[in-house]
Amino acid sequence: AKILVLLVIAALASSELIRIPLKKVPDNRQKRLRNVAAKGLRSRFGGNGVVPLVNEYDLDYYGEISIGTPPQTFKVIFDTGSADLWVPSAQCENNTRTPNGCQNHTKYDADKSSTYQENGHSFYIQYGSGSLSGFLSEDSVNVAGVAVEKQTFAEATYETAPAFVDSTFDGILGLGYPELSSQSVTPVFTNMINQGVLDAPVFSFYLSQTANGDQGELVIGGSDPSKYRGDFTYTEVSKKLYWQTKLQGVSVGKQSLCRNGCRSVIDTGTSLIYGPNDDVEAINDAIGAFYDYDLGIYTIECDADLTKLPNVTFTFGGKKFDISPSAYVIRDSGICVSSFVAGDFFLAG
């Protein structure tokens, strides 16, 4: 299992936690891998609770929220790499030449909510493999029993990115800084703080690698000591846009990478780890992975003895964190994939 804890400010964990379960479901493996590889290229700059999350083939973790009165339920990825909330709209475009992701998912219907307020401003995000467009609306949002009033969110009417067309999740709830919002909208978590519904301005993730079932939790308002051992390691946010911090070094075998430190972003929108081309190539070479041009990612022989592969070590805040082969090799349906993918800078999923 892996633990990711993001602290907005140093604060004591509350005794009452908002819990959101995370889950995993079966899917088309090869299609998902292609989509996730493309997804990494996207361009996007009084209580507590826990949301159970689902781990979708170690690639995406999602949980449930509701919008409106009475509540309409959606499966969303809780994504620290973005700041906006969007879900498919009942006004989803049907007559499109290309597949439209909102057609295959649960859709928000404003006419069925007594707390809906019209906004109407257009909404558009360009991704590496497609785009997302629609319009803004306002309604109450409920996360693990905690209500956020008058939350502005996007109704998606056209989703061309393959990752959305084939996904199990309906939408995305961004947990990034307000400055990252594509429409200058106040994010859900920021509104929770502003509306005083949390005991502490903190959220944390417990992410498990167990297949097909409850896979972890998003804890809002603190952290759950039963999910970790030892003390936290703190590292400063270097730029309040993404959850960006300094990665002090990476090592695998006898190789040392990022020797002078480099930028890194903690992104729960993916379980893969993106990095500069040369560094990713060096890591994959050290672990015996080779590039699959059909899938667009590095793969590893499924009969490889994981006990003979090296750990990959990341250093944050002066402490070394080892990633074992069992964590960085994704195994399923005869395909074994390296978690290390080429990108612009280190993006730690």
Protein architecture, described:
The active site is at 79, 267. InterPro entries: Aspartic_peptidase_A1, Aspartic_peptidase_AS, PEPTIDASE_A1, Peptidase_aspartic_dom_sf. It holds the Pfam family Asp. The structure is a single chain. With 349 residues, the protein is mostly beta strands. It folds into two domains: 18-43 and 54-206, Cathepsin D, subunit A, domain 1 (Beta Barrel); 233-348, Beta Barrel (Cathepsin D, subunit A, domain 1). Helices cover 10% and strands 43% of the residues. The chain has helices spanning 29-39, 162-165, 188-194, 277-286, 325-328, and strands spanning 2-7, 18-23, 49-56, 60-67, 72-79, 85-88, 117-127, 130-143, 146-159, 171-174, 202-207, 214-220, 237-240, 243-247, 249-252, 255-257, 262-266, 273-275, 290-292, 297-299, 312-316, 319-323, 329-332, 335-338, 340-342, 346-348. The longest helix is centred in the N-terminal third of the chain and has 11 residues, at 29-39. The two termini are 13 Å apart.
Low-pLDDT runs of 5+ residues are 1-15, 26-30, 36-47
Helix count, per DSSP? 5
CATH hierarchy class name of the largest domain: Mainly Beta
Beta-strand segment tally = 26
Look at the structure and name the CATH superfamily of the largest domain: Acid Proteases
Q: Return the CATH architecture of the largest domain.
A: Beta Barrel
Largest sheet: 12 strands, mixed
**Computed Rg:** 20 Å
The fraction of residues assigned to DSSP E strands is: 35-45%
Q: Would you tell me which CATH topology of the largest domain applies?
A: Cathepsin D, subunit A, domain 1
Shape: globular
Pfam families: Asp
Keywords: Aspartyl protease, Disulfide bond, Hydrolase, Protease, Signal
InterPro entries: Aspartic_peptidase_A1, Aspartic_peptidase_AS, PEPTIDASE_A1, Peptidase_aspartic_dom_sf
GO molecular function, one term: aspartic-type endopeptidase activity
